[in-house]
Design goal:
Blueprint lengths: L5 E4 L3 E6 L5 E7 L2 E2 L15 E4 L5 E2 L3 E4 L2 E4 L8 E2 L9 E5 L3 E7 L8 E10 L2 E10 L4 E3 L2 E7 L3 E3 L2 E7 L5 E6 L7 E7 L4 E4 L3 E7 L3 E5 L5 E7 L5 H4 L2 E3 L5 E10 L1
Antiparallel strand pairs: 1-2, 2-3, 3-4, 5-15, 6-9, 7-8, 10-11, 11-12, 12-13, 13-25, 14-24, 15-23, 16-20, 17-18, 17-19, 19-22, 20-21, 21-25, 22-23
């Protein structure tokens, strides 16, 4: 049975957490302003809320990667590629909840060729929302990547400054080569953040995104939304820059939304 939605909140910030819809935050209302694209007539679960991307983030070229000398084929869910992992459209199990903290977990599913489980904890305190992902495996080794995909609702203005931008080929996949960032609009991956990314909503609500992730995808082509996605590696990371975890070396990352008015 799917878990119901939960509300966690501080004085000025309220989050609706939907374990049954991919473990996502489906609404963030801060100082009276909705900050996210919420559920609507859009049937693609990739296109609203703020959801975790596990065990990979972004696209995997043709859904193919090699690990431990063996080729693996992922399910193609954005032809011709695999995108955003195996957990965003499946129900998570609630571990615990309180007025300010929500914890839940999910296995990585039969389509993923490894044994793994991820726990997500979301905390609201002092108008700060902290997300934390903890990915484990019982296999000897497993490729791993995590990230978050928040859909922030326009009108809002994004301020960023990155050292590098990944070149993309004609298929929209990073080649591994980096250049100095170009002017947008973007659907691109960046590294070397030189300032904390900041969103300004209507000159009333401000949001800064802190993280220990090393990469960011910025997708600001849509007219209705801006996506700023912290990731532990670049798109196609299993082929470009793989992270390998073991039973004694899990992958843990956080994203922190610091909101002020």
């Amino acid at each position: 049975m799917a878990d119901k939605d939960f509300v966690i909140a501080s004085k000025n910030v309220q989050c609706v957490v939907s374990p049954n819809v991919g473990g996502r935050v489906s609404s963030i209302v801060a100082f009276g302003r909705e900050l996210l694209i919420t559920q609507n007539a859009e049937t693609n679960l990739q296109k609203w809320g703020c959801y975790p991307m596990v065990p990979w983030a972004g696209r995997v070229r043709n859904g193919i990667f090699v690990h431990d000398s063996k080729q693996h084929q992922l399910e193609i869910n954005m032809a011709p590629h695999a995108i955003h992992g195996t957990v965003l459209d499946r129900p998570w199990t609630t571990i615990s909840s309180s007025p300010s903290v929500m914890a839940m977990k999910i296995d990585l599913g039969p389509a993923w060729g490894f044994a793994g489980e991820v726990t997500q904890t979301i905390t609201v305190a002092n108008d700060i929302i902290e997300f934390r992902l903890h990915l484990v495996t019982s296999d000897a080794t497993m490729p791993a990547q995590v990230g978050w995909h928040p859909w922030f609702a326009r009108p809002c203005k994004l301020e960023t400054q990155f050292e590098k931008m990944y070149l993309r080929d004609k298929y929209g996949i990073p080649t591994g080569e980096t250049i100095s960032p170009t002017a947008g609009p973007h659907d691109d991956c960046f590294s070397g953040s030189q300032r904390t990314p900041k969103l300004n909503f209507d000159d009333k609500v401000k949001l800064e995104i802190e993280t220990d992730c090393t990469h960011w995808v910025v997708y600001d082509e849509p007219k209705h939304a801006i996506c700023v996605e912290p990731q532990s590696g670049p798109p196609d990371g299993f082929n470009l820059d793989p992270i390998i975890i073991t039973p004694t070396a899990p992958l843990t990352r956080f994203m922190r939304l610091v909101i002020t008015s």
